[in-house]
Design goal:
The complex is a heterotrimer of chains A (348), B (295) and C (597). With 348 residues, chain A is mainly alpha-helical. Chain A has helices at residues 3-12, 14-30, 34-38, 51-57, 64-76, 90-125, 130-144, 147-161, 173-179, 191-197, 201-238, 241-248, 253-290, 296-305, 309-337, and strands at residues 82-83, 88-89. Chain A starts with a helix and ends in an 11-residue tail after the last helix. Chain C contains 20 helices and 20 strands. In chain C, a hairpin with a 2-residue loop joins β2 and β3 (92-98). Chain C is globular and about 75 Å long. Chain C starts with a helix and ends with a strand. The chains are: A mainly alpha (348), B mainly alpha (295), C alpha+beta (597). Chains in contact: A-B, A-C, B-C. At the A-B interface, α2, α7, α8, α11 and α13 of A face α5, α6, α7, α9 and α11 of B.
Chain lengths: 348, 295, 597
């Protein structure tokens, strides 16, 4: 099937997916009683008396279809509602919090994939030798470490012991005042990129300094996963027929690994890599909290535990959109990497 | 199916897989004999709730009454990790078990048949995957009511799509392999082809992921417990114990590792549990690979 | 051979690693613990960010609009940017000094307070303060009457009701009038004289610039425009996100969920502010806050009680303790439980496996419970000594507080006596079983309930109380409102420092707590009202003393504790004084300073 047609068809399918996701979430929230849903607006014991008025005002006791319809109507007008947990419209909240998470993802994802692939390949190539065992132990340690433990220990060492060397937050107080005042222009709100665009080395350095710990924390925990997958996948490939053939032909082990085994071993890794980027939104919650690097993960979590339904729906829409896109890219990459795979072909 | 004697022999021969096996067996023993190892005190009605020795917040170091010390709120760590072994098995095995089943079935159907079936199943997984996992899990737990059971349901709902997609991907790649073609040429039914040929070869990355995921499930359950949406506070659950230690990881200035036991001990239990399953998983991979010659 | 060897090596390696993980910290800790007996030390905290006050807290403002703000975090920033007509005199909650008013006079016959407005005060955006601004600020707050907002506090003394819908605009207009450069407030009863001053010290008494508001789309001051602004949606008023006050600082930026920043206002009517910038960062993670404090990156952090031992011995911190906060918590006993669909009352009968819906309506049951609670342990173990035991909701520091009020003590014999008498002896014979609920995450309330449960069990093994936690929003509140809770805990903080503010919610028929316990009654309501409206100070005190005695005699709830507060600053911060009504924990920043010496 033609690539372009496939892509268009997949993009069209975005609509039912988005509808499906939001309907599903709405459905779950309907499991809550109006009083429970009203708690978002009535936070304090002192406001309890206003509960019935709140329910009335926000239509929390209207039927499911009506509420969903209203919400959908608003969405088509570009209004995603108001995020109570951060006291601003949902669209504003997404734009405010996205840059921080994107910044983390930009640095963490390549590191995770790179280290995972490299270590995994090395481990597979030296199977059952000390190097293999060593990397496997490191991987397991990284994987089973609770994120918050690693984060806090790193903070203790690099911020505590080494007095302020690698601090939490996105920028120091002074730098923060600087970037928010003229003449500095915030193009993307991603500090590293903005620093480059403004040709300001001091800000770039400061931003990088604050990125080290959260990125390392994220990388250590996630990298192990990719490494393990890569290793077992490589071992698969190395045992395959075409590899033996390549070896028989006299090609060096290096070439065998790089040109033949690795390509096929990458398939499951590509699948998972898609998740790594998009899934960071969930994984960063604790990292964002510990290092005071508030991004969209933190916001979504606050929304979820406070039953801030407009925010949850807004985030779900955004997340769903991202996922469908990423999966599309992944599926297309399959065809590039594995010539045997043809898109959407049915079995005869 | 494989000759079980062969399997066991292979496991025992390899020191690493033997270690994995031993670790798992130790945990199984702990789980089974928990009431004997850490007896529930008199009058304490619910054995899965850790007994408290007082109400002070700060963890206390190990002493003769509490050989592993106490964690925040004076919950006995020893009791917690022993009974926590039971909780860990319950949650991990149930979640991974059901997840594997659902994921395998749907994934193989999608990968093998392609076409409409593939599209529909993939769109369904898309919808589930497009959910922010944490939010979906929280919403489910909050709707059903917090307990270990709702944690399991929520985690299963969040977990299965990854397996489905992984299996599908592998089967996609395998579909054109010679032995699959040959099998079909010989007139084998689709089910037979899937079960006997496609699946066994596509399953390895999934099994590896499953063995890693056993640890991830335990940690995810911990995250939910920590937010008050999982097991009730004071429930014997490794994840909860580790979470209890969250604010004591770094102690007062001058004694930064003062409360090391509060996080290290439950953490070690999790670590060895994960290690055991990983080693076992790798060993199974080596054994079940049809390309390895039997010796 | 080499393969087996390397595998063995790996096993040994793993084993050693684990041993190291366990042994190393254990060794170092025992070594360091010997240093515990030595004097205070801790790291030297460096001096950073000169001219900038930085704090880390766990609360994020909900709104910047003074007419809408009812939470502490919003109140904190409003307190620094806006000003009120009068303010408390230092730490004293009973005496007042003029802020935006130079003079304030009470007329006992006309029941009016007349405030003379200060001249020469400028708003941040350039306007001048006038009496019209004052009138507008109050009237706007009342016609906006935000849902769930604080404005009921203005309605009660001025008009005798709680909501705008009970009145008309002419009523509101008449209550606040401009006369030359004075503003006259007409109260509905003389008893509110002092309460009115206390009320307008709060954020809801802030003065906004009328021209600025109108220019930015706010209420234009006419009756016709009211429907456009009555109970406007949250987030839609201009002052919700923008500030224009007369205070020493003005808004620099509000980065939602992350931090807010203020910068000095150079045209302030008094001495300029001591800090160029005030920054408040939202950091929920305790360890991060602690590290930042020790690194000198912040000047003030919130320290939860249980973490006090961790920062106690750091010499470079200024520690303040035993600050009498005006808040309290109690265990409430529901006297009219709704038995339908109720998982917490067991069988619903007095048969040993449940409780009947009116279980707590018998006084002896309640008194028995009151005597069965170990108040001492609660204070020393749960609150780590950082609290006092109140005898009634009227807590220490409130006007009307009786320091010698009769209180319940931990007395198992008396408890047994009452429980034997309860329900004609049936309770003792049959026993009871129910589930008490705390809001999950609140370990202190959980511990308090467990103490009670254990003690009851010790008196008679047939008394079985299970303790379970539910999330506050989705669990506790809906059950509370539908009368399904049996025994639960709640707290209350002062809106204004007067006994009435505590008596009403705990004891009146329609009080926030007493309503859901069904513990109020008409006679008591009459006494509460009489005490409020009493104009003679001595008489009023007597009446409130009587009410505190009634609390003891009725025993509708078990008073848990009144927490005392602590503050933690680096040693470089000076000038703090305590006033329980200041919304921000960091205190009266305008009167404070920071220097390296």
């Amino acid at each position: 099937m033609e690539l372009r047609a496939y892509i268009i068809r997949r993009l069209l399918l975005l609509v039912p997916v988005l509808l499906g996701v939001t309907l599903f979430i709405f459905g779950i929230t309907m499991l809550f009683t109006p009083t429970q849903r009203a708690m978002l607006y009535v936070r304090d014991v002192k406001q309890l008396a206003d509960m019935p008025a709140v329910i009335e005002r926000y239509g929390l006791d209207r039927p499911f279809v009506v509420q969903y319809g209203n919400w959908l109507g608003q969405v088509f007008q570009g209004n995603l509602g108001y995020s109570k947990v951060v006291s601003q419209p949902v669209t504003d909240a997404i734009f405010q919090f996205l840059p921080a998470t994107v910044e983390l993802a930009i640095f963490a994802t390549p590191l995770i994939i790179l280290l995972g692939v490299v270590f995994g390949t090395t481990a597979a190539a030296h199977k059952d030798k000390p190097l293999d065992h060593g990397t496997r132990v490191v991987a397991i340690l990284g994987w089973s470490l609770p994120t918050f433990w690693l984060g806090l220990i790193l903070l203790m060492i690099f911020y505590g012991f080494l007095t302020g060397f690698l601090p939490p937050g996105r920028l120091s107080v002074q730098m923060d005042l600087l970037v928010n005042a003229a003449p500095f222009i915030r193009y993307t709100h991603i500090n590293t990129i903005d620093a480059i665009l403004n040709l300001n080395g001091a800000v770039l350095l400061e931003a990088l300094r604050h990125l080290v710990l959260p990125v390392v924390t994220l990388t250590v925990v996630q990298m192990a996963f990719i490494m393990r997958l890569m290793r077992s996948s490589m071992l698969e490939s190395l045992g395959k027929g075409y590899v033996l053939t390549a070896r028989a032909k006299g090609l060096s082990e290096r070439v065998v690994i790089r040109k033949h085994a690795r390509r096929n071993a990458l398939i499951p890794v590509i699948t998972v890599s898609g998740y790594v980027f998009a899934g960071l939104a969930n994984g960063v919650v604790i990292t964002e909290t510990i290092f005071n690097f508030k991004g969209i993960g933190w916001w979504a979590w606050q929304a979820a535990i406070n039953l801030d339904i407009p925010s949850v729906l807004g985030f779900a829409l955004f997340n769903a959109f991202l996922f469908v896109l990423v999966n599309l890219v992944v599926d297309v990459l399959y065809t590039r990497v594995d010539p045997r795979v043809r898109l959407g072909q049915a079995v005869q | 199916m494989k000759d079980w004697r062969f399997v066991v022999r292979q496991l025992v021969r390899n020191p690493l897989s033997l270690m994995g096996l031993i670790l798992i067996v130790i945990f199984i023993i702990i789980a089974i004999f928990a009431p004997l190892i850490a007896p529930t005190p008199e009058g304490h009605q619910r054995p899965y709730m850790i007994p408290r020795d007082g109400y002070r917040a700060a963890p206390e170091p190990p002493d003769e009454d509490h050989i592993f010390g106490t964690t925040q709120g004076q919950y006995d760590i020893f009791y917690g990790v022993i009974w926590g072994t039971r909780s860990a098995f319950q949650v991990a095995l149930l979640v991974i078990g059901i997840t594997l089943l659902v994921g395998l079935v749907l994934g193989s159907l999608a990968g093998y048949f392609g076409g409409i079936i593939d599209e529909v199943i993939m769109r369904i997984t898309d919808i589930f995957l497009a959910f922010p996992a944490l939010i979906l899990a929280m919403a489910i737990v909050a709707a059903i009511g917090p307990s270990l059971r709702s944690v399991m349901i929520a985690l299963t709902a969040v977990w299965w799509p990854s397996y489905a997609r992984l299996i599908r991907g592998d089967i996609l790649a395998l579909r054109e392999e010679d032995y699959i073609e040959a099998s079909r040429g010989l007139g084998a039914s689709s089910a037979r082809v899937i079960l006997r040929h496609a699946l066994p070869n596509a399953i390895y990355p999934t099994l590896i992921m499953a063995s890693l995921d056993i640890g991830a499930v335990v940690l995810a359950a911990a995250a939910l417990s920590f937010l008050g949406l999982g097991a009730p506070e004071g429930y014997a659950d490794w994840g909860q114990l580790t979470s209890f230690a969250r604010n004591w990881i770094v102690g007062p200035p001058g004694e930064p590792l003062k409360h090391w036991y509060a996080v290290t001990i439950p953490g070690l239990f999790i670590l060895f549990f994960v290690l055991g399953w990983n080693l076992l998983g790798d060993a199974f991979r080596d054994i079940f690979d049809p390309r390895l010659a039997r010796r | 051979m080499s393969k087996r060897f390397s595998k063995m090596a790996l096993l040994v390696l793993i084993g050693l690693l684990c041993l190291a993980l366990v042994a190393f910290p254990a060794c170092t800790t025992t070594g360091e613990q010997q240093e515990e007996e030595e004097e205070e030390g801790g790291p030297a905290i460096p001096y950073k960010n000169d001219g900038i006050f930085v704090q880390m807290t766990i609360g994020e403002p909900e709104t910047l609009d003074p007419a809408a703000s009812y939470d502490n975090a919003s109140g904190e920033i409003i307190d620094l940017v806006y000003e009120t007509l009068v303010d408390y005199d230092g730490g004293d909650v009973g005496n007042f000094v003029g802020q935006l008013a130079t003079d304030f006079v009470w007329d006992g016959a006309a029941l009016t307070w007349t405030f003379t407005i200060r001249e020469g005060v400028k708003f941040h955006e350039g306007g001048d303060l006038s009496a019209e601004d004052v009138e507008y600020s109050f009237e706007r707050a009342m016609i906006y009457d935000r849902l769930g907002g604080p404005v009921w506090m203005l309605f009660e003394p001025l008009l005798g009701g709680y909501e705008f819908v009970e009145f008309t605009y002419p009523d509101v207009d008449a209550a606040v009038e401009v006369d030359g450069n004075t503003v006259v407030f007409k109260l509905v009863e003389a008893g509110y004289r002092l309460i009115w001053l206390q009320t307008i010290c709060g954020g809801w008494g802030s003065i906004l610039d009328k021209e600025w508001c109108i220019a930015n789309g706010e209420w234009d001051g006419t009756e016709a425009d009211i429907p456009n602004h009555y109970q406007q949606e949250d987030g839609t008023t201009y002052p919700w996100n923008n500030m224009n006050g007369t205070g020493p600082w003005k808004l620099n930026e509000w980065e939602h969920g992350v931090q807010w920043k203020l910068e000095r206002f150079d045209d302030y009517w008094r001495e300029p502010a001591p800090f160029d910038f005030v920054i408040s960062q939202l950091v929920e993670e305790w360890t991060t806050r602690k590290q930042a404090l020790l690194a000198g990156d912040v000047d003030f952090v919130l320290v939860d009680k249980m973490y006090i031992p961790e920062v106690e011995n750091v010499a470079d911190l200024t520690k303040l303790k035993d600050l009498p906060e005006l808040s309290t918590a109690a265990l409430f006993m529901n006297q009219a439980i709704d038995a339908v669909d109720n998982d917490y009352i067991g069988t619903g009968l007095l048969d040993g496996n449940g409780i009947p819906p009116d279980f707590f309506s018998d006084e002896d049951v309640r008194k028995g419970f009151c005597y069965a609670f170990d108040y001492e342990t609660a204070i020393t173990d749960i609150m780590l000594g950082e609290a006092i035991s109140p005898a009634s909701p009227v807590v220490s520091g409130l006007l009307g507080y009786n320091p010698n009020a009769e209180a319940y003590t931990y007395d198992l014999e008396k408890a047994e006596e009452h429980l034997r008498a309860a329900w004609g002896g049936e309770v003792w014979e049959k026993g009871f079983k129910f589930t008490a609920i705390y809001n999950s995450g609140n370990d202190q309330r959980k511990a308090a309930m467990e103490i009670l449960a254990e003690n009851l069990f010790a008196i008679n093994p047939k008394f079985q109380v299970a303790v379970a936690g539910l999330p506050w929003g989705t669990g506790v509140v809906p059950l509370l409102r539908s009368y399904r809770l049996v025994l639960y805990a709640c707290g209350w903080g002062a809106d204004y420092p007067h006994a009435h503010n505590f008596v009403y919610p705990f004891m009146a028929k329609t009080g926030t707590f007493s309503k859901f316990m069904a513990s109020g009654y008409d006679e008591l309501d009459a006494k509460i009202n009489a005490a409020l409206l009493e104009t003679d100070p001595q008489e009023q005190q007597d009446k409130y003393y009587e009410i505190q005695q009634i609390w003891h005699d009725d025993a509708p709830a078990i008073m848990l504790w009144q927490a005392t507060g602590r503050r933690w600053f680096t040693k470089y911060v000076h000038g703090f004084f305590f006033n329980p009504m200041i919304p921000g924990d960091a205190g009266p920043l305008y009167y404070m300073s920071k220097s390296a010496s």
